[in-house]
Design brief:
Blueprint (H helix, E strand, L loop, with lengths): L3 E3 L6 E9 L1 H5 L8 E13 L2 E15 L6 E8 L2 E6 L6 H4 L1 E2 L2 E6 L5 E3 L1 H11 L13 H7 L27
Parallel strand pairs: 6-8
Antiparallel strand pairs: 1-9, 2-3, 3-4, 4-5, 4-6, 7-8
Length: about 180
């Protein structure tokens, strides 16, 4: 599927695009972590003179392996990045100039007539996923948890000499 906006061909005013991003989308990026997905990508483009504003709304779910039991885990995805497109070179001091209100600024060469959003969609989906991807308490495969030899709960920090942080205990208590 093509996730490209024809910037030069856009009419003045608002234009809406609706796309789907499934398993094939992530396979194109050689992403082995996302096993499947059902994402709706809603794009609203506002063009007024030289101003182009792009609003992405990404909703749905992705399936990843659980970090604990390796069974499939469906995670919700919700991202709503906002962009303003500017043509020309990005300024050298981009840190101060990288936002325009609540919008990130995308700098494109003046010669670009199209904007491929696939990399942005991919990045924002991955950024919306949690670092630790585990089933809710009790949701992991009990056979796998039994095989791993530990209870399905958060790891506990040992007390006493085995705890590398034991020396910090009472640091702010005035002890």
């Amino acid at each position: 599927m093509d996730y490209t906006l024809p910037l030069n061909g856009l009419a003045q005013g608002r234009t809406v695009f609706d796309w789907k991003a499934g398993k094939e989308f992530f396979e194109a990026f050689d992403n082995a972590d996302i096993l499947s997905s059902a994402l709706d990508v809603h794009v609203t483009v506002e063009k007024s003179g030289r101003y182009i504003g792009i609003d992405l709304d990404i909703e749905g779910y992705v399936t990843v392996p659980c970090d604990r039991c390796l069974e499939d885990l469906d995670l919700p995805v919700s991202a709503a990045p906002r962009f303003s497109v500017k043509f020309g070179e990005a300024p050298q001091e981009q840190a101060e100039d990288s936002k325009e209100g609540e919008r990130e600024i995308l700098y494109l060469p003046s010669s670009d007539a199209d904007l491929d959003l696939s990399q942005l969609i991919y990045d924002f989906v991955n950024l919306s996923l949690p670092l630790q991807r585990v089933h809710p308490e009790g949701g992991c495969n009990p056979e796998m948890v039994k095989y791993l030899g530990h209870e399905e709960s958060s790891p506990q920090v040992p007390e006493g000499g085995d705890n590398p942080f034991a020396a910090l205990k009472g640091l702010f208590d005035g002890k």
